[in-house]
């Protein structure tokens, strides 16, 4: 049990560390100056393979939530649907609804 908890903490630490290293991204800047995904874009972000850099372009998703998405995916496997994002710590129903135009989980 202790190894499992230590491993989980290590994965979260790595995800948060990676967030700091890959803070820059290539999407368009939003009103707050943060780069964000553009609604209506031809390509949706696949949450099953998205990098931290890609996830932080999504509205309402910063480094901490992006790290939580990656940690959840690492521990539980691929998302079967976008709605499953609601199981990620820190992401509620409102955030999931806001993300639906931008993401996919094929």
Describe the SSE topology.
Elements: H1 2-21, E1 28-29, E2 35-36, E3 45-46, H2 52-55, H3 63-76, H4 93-99, E4 103-104
Parallel strand pairs: 3-4
Antiparallel strand pairs: 1-2
Helix pairs in contact: 1-3
What labels would you give this structure?
DNA polymerase, domain 1; 4 helices; mainly alpha; two-stranded antiparallel ribbon; globular; two-stranded parallel sheet; 8% strand; 106 residues
Characterization of the model:
Helix 1 crosses helix 3. The chain has one domain: DNA polymerase, domain 1. Helix content is 42%, strand content 8%. With 106 residues, the protein is mainly α. Strands 1-2 form a two-stranded antiparallel ribbon.
Might you state the CATH topology name?
A: DNA polymerase, domain 1
CATH architecture: Orthogonal Bundle
Please report the first level of CATH classification, the CATH class: Mainly Alpha
Helix count, per DSSP?
4
Rg over CA atoms, rounded to whole Å, is 14 Å
